[in-house]
Amino acid sequence: MKILVNSLCKQGGRDYNQDYVAYDASDGDACLVVCDGLGSYIGSEVASRLCATKIVETYKHVKETEGARAFTPDIVKAYVQTAHNYVAGYKEQNPVLRSSCTTVAGVVTNLTDTVIVHIGDTRAYILREGKIVYQTRDHSLARAAVDLGEIPLSEIRNHKDQNKLTRVLGSGYYIAPDCEIVTDPLQVGDGIIICSDGFWEYVYDEEMEADFVKASTPSEYIALMEARLLARVGPHNDNYSVIAAMVVE
Q1: DSSP secondary structure code for residue 233 in this structure
Q2: What are the pLDDT digits (tens) for 78-89?
């Protein structure tokens, strides 16, 4: 088995792009990361770039030096901690960036062991047999409203507090990422999506499932979903980014 990967990262209707995508994938393993810098904070495009590239860089080093340990939960969480420290240190040297911060979602897998980490509202999904079987839980006030029973999950995209986050990377305090372990090995036909809120706000879960069944490659899959997004967005839509991966024979 091997993993096929493709991605896009686009500016949308904003003046510049604060999203960043990075990944490393070989035949049977991958580290996939999407970051979304917070738009109201100066320099968040730097925070997102530093975070994503540092996670992948650290993963590659650990994989080369320690092999299978690169895919263990404690080590994967440490990739995110390392990225946070790197962003915080960079900000100390560049005070103009002092308010910058970012969300992050990452999937690290060798097909047998899969670990998902995330901070903020950038999401990771796993699909099996054409259905979403796993989805991260946003760190946002809108998600808190869902958990409290105030709104159904279907209304989270349009909630007034959808973009108010309860956890970010690079701020003055650090809360470790949520970390989920996929207990079943990935198998042929499985898929992975990681995307910023500028993407999932306009591509609904049932559409991700439908397009996954139609597509034969990650690039085709992304094209189908982007077409849905572009049909819905207004003139000033957010940056949008996605990584799509498929497990094939």
Answers
A1: -
A2: 999 999 999 999
